Structures are given as C-alpha cells and as structure tokens.
Amino acid sequence: MYLKSIEVQGFKSFAKKLVFEFHNGITGIVGPNGSGKSNVADAVRWVLGEQSAKQLRGSSMQDVIFSGTEMRKPQSYAYVALTISNEDHKLNLPYEEVQVARRVYRSGESEYLLNGVTCRLRDVQELFFDTGIGKEGYSIIGQGQIDKILSGKPEERRELFDEAAGIVKFKKRKTVAEKNLEEEQQNLVRIEDILSELEKQVEPLEAQSEKAKEYLSYRDELRNLDINVFLQDYKENSASMEELREKESIADGDLAKTKEEYETVKSEYIQLEEALDKHTRNLEECRETLSADKVKLNQQEGDIKVLEEQINAVRQSELYYREQIENYRAKVSELESEQEEHRAKTKEFEDKLQQMEQSRQDVTAKREKTGNEIALLEQEIAGHNEAIAQAKDANTDVVTQEERFQTLLEQNNIKKVELTKRILENKTQTAGLQEILDREQSNLQEISDKIQALDDAGAELAHSVKHMQGQTEQLNLERRETERQYHMDHSRLRSLQNMTERYEGFGQSIKRVMEQKPNYPGIVGVVADIIRVNKKYEIAVETALGGSIQNIVTDNEQTAKSMIAHLKKNRYGRATFLPLTNIHTKAASRAQNIMAEPGVIGMASTLVEAEDRFSELVEYLLGRFVVVDHIDHAIALAKKYHHTIRIVTTEGELLNPGGSMSGGAFRNNNNLLGRRREMEELEQQTKKWKARLTEIDADIAKYEKDGAQIRQKIETNHHLREELVLQQNTAKLQYDRANRDMEQAKEQLDHIRFESQGIEGQKKELQVELDKLQDQRKENEDQNKIREERIAECTDKLDQVREQQRQLETEDAQLQLDYTTLEQKKQFQQENVNRVAGELQNICQQMEEASGNNMQADERVRQKEAQIADLRQQMDQLSVQITTLTEMVEQKVQKREELTTRQKGFFERRESLSEQMNALDKEVFRLRNSQEKLQEKMDSYTNYMWEQYELTFSKAEEIRVALNMSGAQMRAQIKTLKGKIKGLGDVNVNAIEQYRELMERYELLNGQHDDLIKAADVLRGIIEELDTEMRKQFEEQFAEIQTRFDKVFKELFGGGRGALELTEGEDVLEAGIKIVAQPPGKKLQNMMQMSGGEKALTAIALLFAIQSLKPSPFCLLDEIEAALDDSNVGRYANYLHKLTENTQFIVITHRRGTMNAADILYGITMQEKGVSTLVSVSLLDEKEIAN
Three-state SS for 1006? Predict the structure, then answer.
C-alpha cells in the first residue's frame, strides 16, 4: 500500500486544480519560502480528518478555501483527494485503489467521499486504524510535531506511542464500551425510578380493578333482571293495550249513534225556534204599527189647531212692514251721496303722497352717493401724497447702487478672458485621453456584457433550480399529506363498507335474516337502509325510530312469515318485520296547527327521503313525531298540547305523551342512518385524493427532468465565466489607468468651467441687478408724475361733490314736512268713508228683512190652510187602519202560545242527548289517555333498554336468561342491586384493563432491569479484557521501541545513548513518557538541556525508531531537518533511504542534502502572486532553491 497521488483544488494557495503523482522511494517537494510547500502537508492532514483550523494555520475552516487575489476571484470551495494503492488489501476494502476526498464550501457545508461515495469522518478514521496514517498518527510530521515531541509534557507524547504500539483501536473500543456502560447505568437508574412509581400504582389500581369486576358482575345481573322485567311488562302492557283498543272501539260506536240522534233533534229544534222567532217578530211589528198610528192621529189633531192660530197672527203684521220699507229707502239715498264725496278726496290725497314718497327716495339715494364719493376722493389724495414721498427716498438709494455695480462688472470681464484661455488648453489634452478611454471602455464593456449575460443567465437558472426545488419539496409535502389523507379516508371507507356488508351494529337475528336476502327477493332491507336523512336531523330521526331502526321491511306478510319460521327453526332469536302490504296510516289531525308553533321544524316523516313505495311505512314509523330545534321549545309545545304529542329535538331529547322526557349523551357511536351518507362522501373524497396524487407525481417528474437540464447549463456557464473573468481583470486594469488620467483632465476642466460659470453667473446677476435699479428709478419718477396729476383732479371733483351734498340735504328736509301734512289729511277722509259704509250696510239689511216679511205673509196663510185639509183626510185613514191591526194582534198572540209549548218538549230531549254524549266522550278520552300512558310506558321501557343496553325487544328476547322469579321479586332484586352499585361509589371500569396493562409493563420493565444488570456486567468484563490486552501489548511494543530508539540514536549521533522511561507511580496505560539522551562525549541529560540541533536529531531518531518497528504505508515530513547542520542532514538522508523498503516518503525541504537523496523532485513556486503552481525543478534557479 502506498500513496499514488494527491489532487488539490481551491485549497489555500492552490487556486487551480493540481495533481501530485507519487511512486515508491523518496519524493521531494521544494520551492522558495512562502511558495506554498507546507500547504501540501496541510492538505493531507485536512483530508485525513483534521478539525482544528489552528493546526492548519488558520482562524476558521473557511480559511482553507482560496481567498482570491487582485487578478483572481475567490473560490467557492476547497477540494483535496488522496489516491492510495490497496493491492495488498491492508485497508479493509474490496478495491485495488482507494480514493479518500474531502470538500468544504464557503457556506460551511462539507462532505467526505470514499471512492466518490459520501461517507462519515468516522468511516475515514476507522479505515486507517493501526496503519500509522491519520491526523493523530506518525505519517505526517511537521516542525510543529517535532517541537511537540521535544518540549511537550510526558503525558502529551502518549498518543504517538499508543499509535506505534497498536493499542489505539483498543482504546477506542474501551471508550465506546465505557460510554455504553454509562448509558446502561443511566437506563438502569431510569428503569428503577419507573419501577418504583409503578409499584406505588399497583396496589390502588388492583383495588380499583377488583371493585370494577364486582361492579361489572352486578351490572350483568342487573341487565338480565332488566331484560326479564322489560319483556314481562312489555307483554302485559301489549295485552292491556289491545283490551283498551276494543273498549275504545265500542265507545266510539255508541258515541257516533248518540251524536247522530242529537244532530236530528237539534235540527228540528232549530227549525221550531226559527218559526217562533219569526212569529214573535211579526206580532211585535203589528203592535208597534198600531201604537204608532194612534199617536199619529192625536198628533194630527193638535197640528190643525196650531195652524189656525198662525194664520190669524200673519194677517195682523202685514201693514207694519210696508211703512218701515219706505223710510229705509230715503235714508240710503242720502248716505250714498256722502260716501262718494269722501272717496274722491281720499283718492286725491293718496296720489299726492305716492309722488312725494318717490321724490324723497331719489333725494336719499343721491345723498348716499355723494357721501361715498367724498370719502373715496379724500382717501385717494392721502395715498398719492404718501407714495410720492416714499418714491423720492428710494431713488436716492438706487443711484448709489448703480455706481457700485458698474465697477464690479468691469472686474468680472477681466477674469473671464483668463479662464477662456485655460479651457482651450484643457480641451486639447482631453481629446487625446478620450480616444484611449473609448477604446479600453469598448473592450471592457464587451467582456463585461458577456459576463453579465452569463451572470443573468446563471441567476435565472439558479432561481429556476431553487424555484423547482421549492416546488418539488412543496409537491412532496403535499403528496405525503394527500397520500395520508387518501389512506385515512380509504381505510375508513373500507371499514364502513365491511360494517355495512356485515350489518355491524344490528342484532344477531337481523344479520341472520339479511344473510337470506339473496334467496328471498321479498326482503327489502332494514329501516336504516331505505330512508335518507339530512345530517343535521340524523340524531332526531334515529331517536324517534329507537329500536324500530333495526326492523326488517318485507314486500308482504308471507315473506315475513317465512323469515320468522327460519329464525325459529335455527333458534337465531327474534326480529320485527314490517310487511309493506300491511302498513296503513292516517294523517294527523293537528299537524297544521303544530307546524305554526315556535321552534317546530316539521313532522319527522317529512324530514326523511325514501322511495314512493315506502311513503306509508315512513308515515307509520315517524308520522307521530314532531321535530323541534331545542328542548326549551319542545317543553313549551308539550305544555300547550297537554302532553298529548310526541316531540323529539335535533339533539336527541324525546318528550312522550303523558309528560315523560328522555335525553342525555349517546353511549354508542353506531350512527346507522349516517353510515351510508358517510360512505358516499368518502367515495367522492378518495377519488379526488387519487386524482390529485396522479397530478402531483407528473409535476414532480417534470420538475426533476427540467432541474437536471438546468444544472448542466449552470456548470457549462461557470467554466466559461472563469475564462472571461481573467480577460475582464486585464481589460479593467488598462481601462482604470486611462480612466484615472481622463478623470484628472475632466476635474481640471470642470474646475475651470466652474470658475467660468461662477464669473458668468456673477456678471449676469450684476447686469440684472443694474437693470432692475435703472428700471426702478425710472418707474418711480413716472409714477410720481401720474400721482400729482391725479391729486389735482381729485381736489376739484371733491369741491363739486360737497356743494351737491348741501343742496340735497335742504331738499330732503322740505319733502319730509310736506309728506307728514298730506298723510294726516288722508287718514281723516278714510275714516269718514268707513263710517258712511257701515251705516249703509245696516239700513239695507233692515229694509230687506221688512220686504221679505211682507211678501211671505200671504204665502204662509195659503200653505197653512192646505195643510189643515190634508191632515183631516189622513185622520180618517188612520181610524180604519187602527181597527184592522187590533184584530190581527189578538190572533198572533194565540199562535205564539202554541209554538212555545212545542219548543219546551224539544229542549228537554236535546239536553238528555247532550248529557249522554258528554258521558261517552269522557269514556273515549279516558280510554285513549290510558292507551297513551300505556304506550308511553312501553316506549319508556323500550328507550331505557336501548339507551342503557342498546337492546330492542327482539334482541332482548334473543339474549334473555329465564329466571324463576315473579315480577315483584325481580323489581325488589333490581332495587337491591342498584343500591349495591351505588354503595360502590365511583367505579373506574377501565381499571381492569389498566391494571392488566400496568402489570404487563411492570413485568416487562423488571425483565429489562435484569437484562441491563447483565449487560453492565458484560461491559465491565469487556473493559477489563481490553485493559489486560492493552497493557500486555503496550509493554511488549514499548520495550521494542526503547531498543530501536537507542540503536537509531547511536547511528544518527555516531555514538552515545538514547532512553525512554515511563513516569513512575502511574498505570502503564496512562503514564507519560520521558525522553533521555546522551550524545557522544556528554553526560546523560534531559532533552531540555540539549542544543536545538541535538533536540531535533533526537526527535528524528525516535520517529525513525517507530517507523522501523511499525512502518506506515507513507510518511510526509515537512522540513523536520531544518535545524540540522549539513553533516547531520547527510546522516538523516542516508537513514531515510534505509526506511524506504517499507515506507514511501514525501519530503518537503529546502536542504540540498535531502534533495540529493530524493528519487523525484516537485517544484512549487508563485508565478502569480498568491497562487501556487507546480513546475519542473529545472525551471527553478539553483540558488533560489538553496535559499
């Protein structure tokens, strides 16, 4: 076995990929100081598992990665590979050649490779156990190791001798055994703690278990008693129910006959009563007519007397009215003349007042206008005077500023001429530099564009890879979740299908009957199979059905009869059958009224779905149940209808006729109604999951294929980019140089231009300011002239307006006086007009009344005489009518007495029939109420058995164990058992299983406890055996190393003596090692008392002694002879040749004697700063090598 090659890439100064090939003998690696020779030794130590960055001459592991130079970019990873020939199979691998590699990335990720396959550091270390190869072995020796051997403590030299003695693998095994022993002891402590806790639980749990067994015994006995009492009571109640139904039928017949007879009597009585009422009304009408006629006759006689008196009074007042009318006419004529005269004067005054009011308004408006004009003119004159004074002051300052700006402009022009000359010189220089810069920039831009294009493509490809990886991970997560959901739903579906096929949850007798369904087409199925119900009503409907949910539906009674015979014959138990030909129902009479009540959802029969042929069956099973939303509404509804209806809530509470209530939590979770619905939902869901899995697999395959193609493109782009980066660095240096020259020229030009712009800007600012001052001065003078002219105009106009104002004030005072006088005259005339009008109105009214009275007097006399004649004629007719009506009244009185006698007989007959009907109705109600209570009692028993034991009547008969006891005795026994169960208190039924599981766990842990004790004893034995073997082997090998060390020491030193000693008073496996040397001609002395060269040669002697005893396949020596003189270097090189028979040597050196001894030489230099390269040794200057 030997080292064939070392491949290095990106490790420290080895930027490029380099391969060192080796053969047997001595291979020398030479080069100047700082060229990177020792990095070869670091590379070998690193690939063999070195984890300390300090040992590799760095501060962190990222320091081993090539960090870049001015011309090269940093590498992203470091890679080193050792190829070892394994033809003799000293390494325990079935390969002729073994490659060990290590790679580390800047991100901190690293990996080990064994023949290209990822492996662990531990695998690499175990591969080289007892070969001398490894970071802790003696195959790689540098100056640091030499110093450690020389100046280290005796204990620190121990690793080297352990490796040489071959006990490292035993120490590793001992360490593992000790670690396992410690773990076993920790496990033992934990198990003892757990056993201690379990022992505390065993006794109380055992007591609970015994209590639970006693409880279960009582419960089973109570269950059997409940079944017997239930069956006995159910049969007795069924017989009583049949007897009550027969009595109810008889009472219903009698009640119907009585009602029919009552209705007949009632009809005749009503007819007689109607006739009597009609006759009485006619009699009353005749009497009323007779009384009215008599009253009317007396009234007419009085009216005639009154009319005669009125005629006499009218004739006496006619003369008075005529005289009064003449006086009124004369007075009216006088007043009308006076009124016209007053109106004319009033009109005249109103016209004058209107004209005067208009004049006053005109004068007031003129006065306001002139007052405003005066104020404005005075204000304007004052403003102009003030502005003129300010303008004159400003002009004095403007003249002073103009003179100063003129001087500044002249200085500015001189500076501008100088800057123009400098700009021309700079432009000439810049033109030449720009040409060079454009050429270099074009070259750099072209290379940069190519690199940018590759970077953009690489970033896009990397993003695509990352996106695809993210998508693939997301799809894998989704696939696992989807697959989990699919298996869960599919498993649940298969479970439900199996339960449905086996009719799980149904009684044994039901299963036996349904097994015969293929042979008997007349078996339709169980009730749970033929109805469908919305999920939110499942609990309500299942509660309403109770045990009926397991009833078997057949096409006719013949099929049911055959199945009953089958059950009897095979003693399979009992079952309830529902032949469709026998099921008939009638609609509930109060359904419409109940539906309107609060909280009522509907009748249970309307909330389920079934085929049309099962409609009567559904009505039979559920038509009596009202479904409500919650128990509060149910209680209110039951109270309103006097507890005569069956009510079930959506949460499963049941209210029976008579007032009993059932409710609570369901003990079983066999939802027979919801099973088929859940199966359909699961079938749809599993199909969706399966389709989604297919889609995900296709997407994952596509992403993986695309990702492989993209990664290939990334690798190609990476190599191309490295070449372009080299070209870019060269172009960038040239461009930067040209750019710096150009920038300097531009900075000078910018500075000149900046000064020029400053001067030009200053000139413009000065000229602008000067122009502003001249314009301002001229503007002030022009404005003053305008203001003075305006002041003169305003003064003249102000005098005129003030004169107008005085005239208008005089005119307004005169108009005010005239207006007041006319207003008083107008008011006086208006009062006269109103007075005359009032007098005229009174006289006209009086005259009209007198004229009307006179005209009406004659007419009233004629009317009243005609009325007297009519009244006399009507009196004659009334006398005849009164005589006729008196005779009719006497006849009708006699007829009414006859009808009253007949009515009394019918009334007594009707009352007798009504009493008989009430008695029969009460009897029917009593019988029905008894039936409801009995049915409620039976339902209560049935529900109790279902809720407590999940038993129907047929199932209870099937599992019944007959008892030789009466009903009273069984009830007494039930009471006793319930008392015993109550006396047990809280019972943990699970305690039996918990106790069993606890004991199993206790026994298992107890067994593990014994096994751990045995395992600990075995491990102690192994450690003892290893210690014995290591002591024996170390003592033998140490003695041999002592002998060989003395021999090699004498050969290298040309005499003297070397010795190795163990520290006293310590275990041979832990003792330190002292090195004692006696060079020729000197006393025996400690290492610390020797010179540097003697120390180094002594350490080399020890290493050579170990190599001669247990040669390593190869050995890398890094300038360990640096401290030796030439004569000692020669002896070192000669002895090295002796050891090449069993060991391959790779020597890093710059000593000529060592180079002469080498069979092959590799030269390492830095042609490029910071980058080590491998060159032929002939290319190196001999003097350079020597130094």
Answer: helix
Q: How does residue 1117 score in pLDDT terms, banded at 50, 70 and 90?
A: confident
Helix, strand or coil, per DSSP, at residue 104 = strand
Minimal CA–CA distance to 441: which of 724, 742, 722, 723? Answer: 742
| Closest to 545 in 3D by CA, of 525, 532, 528 | 528
Which has the higher per-residue pLDDT, 79 or 930?
Answer: 79
Specify which residues 602 forms β-bridges with. 627
| Strand ranges, E, within 50-196 | 77-85, 97-105, 110-114, 117-119, 140-142
For the stretch 840-882, pLDDT in tens is 677 677 667 666 666 666 666 677 777 777 777 777 777 777 7
pLDDT at 553: 92
What DSSP letter does each residue of 324-335 carry, written as one string?
HHHHHHHHHHHH
User: What are the two backbone dihedrals, phi and then psi, of residue 1063, each rounded to the nearest 5 degrees?
Assistant: -65, 140
Give the angle 142-148-149 at the CA atoms, nearest 5°: 95
DSSP for 338-372, written as a single string = HHHHHHHHHHHHHHHHHHHHHHHHHHHHHHHHHHH
The residue written with tokens 């919305």 in the block is 534
Q: What is the CA radius of gyration of the chain?
A: 67
Residue 941 CB neighbours (<10 A): 19
Contact in structure between 1041 and 1105 (CB atoms under 8 Å):
yes
Contact 405, 769 (CB under 8 A): yes
Question: Looking at residue 1186, what is its pLDDT?
Answer: 36
CB 950 within 8 A of CB 667: yes
Cα–Cα dist 129/135, whole Å: 11
pLDDT for res 398? 67
Please tell me the predicted confidence (pLDDT) of residue 1181.
Answer: 40
Q: Regarding beta strands 1114-1118 and 1085-1086, do their DSSP bridges make them parallel or antiparallel, or are they unpaired?
A: unpaired
Two structure tokens written together for 556: 């006719």
How far is the CA of 351 from the CAs of 341, 347, 362, 825, in angstroms?
16, 6, 17, 13
**Please, which residues have CB within 8 angstroms of residue 391's CB and are 6 or more apart in sequence?**
780, 781, 783, 784
Kindly indicate the confidence band of residue 79, based on its pLDDT and cuts at 50, 70 and 90: very high
Phi, psi angle pair for 603, to nearest 5°: -70, 145
What pLDDT digit, counting tens, does each position of 1001-1023 carry?
A: 788 888 888 888 888 888 888 88
Q: Is the pLDDT of residue 347 over 70?
A: yes
- The predicted model gives 950-966 an average pLDDT of 78
Kindly write down the DSSP assignment for every residue of 1034-1101, as one continuous string: HHHHHHHHHHHHHHHHHHHHTS-EEEEEEPTTS-TTT--EEEEEE-TTS--EEGGGS-HHHHHHHHHH
* Each residue's pLDDT tens digit, 691-701: 888 888 888 88
Write phi, then psi, for 647 (nearest 5 degrees).
-130, 135
C-alpha dihedral, 654 to 655 to 660 to 665, nearest 10°: 20
Q: Contact at 8 Å (CB) between 430 and 749?
A: yes
Round to whole Å and give the CA distance between 962 and 320. Answer: 132
Amino acid at 1046: D
* CA-wise closest residue to 1042 among 154, 130, 165: 165
Q: Is-contact 500 576, C-beta < 8 A?
A: no
Among 576, 573, 520, 532, CA closest to 550: 576
Per the prediction, the chain carries an average pLDDT of 78
For 438-467, how does the pLDDT look when each residue is reduced to its tens digit (9 = 90+)?
A: 777 777 788 788 888 888 887 887 788 788
Cβ contact 1074:154 at 8 Å:
yes
3-state SS, residue 14: strand
- The residue whose two tokens read 């491998």 is 1174
DSSP structure class, residue 650:
T
What is the C-alpha separation between 996 and 1002, in angstroms, rounded?
10
Does the pTM surpass 0.85? The reply is: no
Give 409's Cβ-side CA count (13 Å radius): 14
Quote the CA–CA distance of 1159 and 27 in Å, as a whole number. 6
